[in-house]
Amino acid sequence: MPKQLLEAVLPPGKSISAQSKSGHGSQRCRLEIDGNTALSAGVEWYDEGRPLDFLAGLMMPPVGDAGFERPHKLTPDKRFLISDSAAVGLVKCADPSYIDRDVKGDLFTKMYVLGGQSNEEEIKSLITAYTEAMTNSAACRNEIW
C-alpha cells in the first residue's frame, strides 16, 4: 500500500511494528503504533457469493478498542463496503484460473483502523489500493493455505 495512504489514517507515534499471519486461506497483518493496534488488514477466501455485509459483520477489533465502525456504505460498483474506520473489498484476480481450478470461492480484503483520524474517503482510498494490490498476489494464486 502506498505510504501516504497509510500515513493519512495512522495515529502519530514514536514506534511502529508489524505482525503477520498466514494460513487456512487467509493472510493478515497488524500494525502497532507505540504498542497499540492501529491498523489490521487481511485477505481471505470465503464461499462463493458471500455478501460484503456478511464479512463486515465478522470484523472484530481487539477488546477494549474504541472508534471502530463496521463498514456499511456500498460503493456503486458493489465491490466495497466502507465506513469512516473500516472496509471490506472484493478482489478480482488478474488470473482467475487458479480460483476455478483450486477453490470455489471469492477473495476478499478487510481492514480497520483504530486510534487515527480517518474518514470515509481515506479508508476508501486505502481499501481500493490494498484490494488492487491483491489482484496479482500469492492470495490470488491460492498460496495462502
Automatic annotation (TrEMBL):
- Highest taxon listed in the record's lineage: Bacteria
Protein name, as recorded: Uncharacterized protein
Gene source species: Streptomyces coeruleoprunus
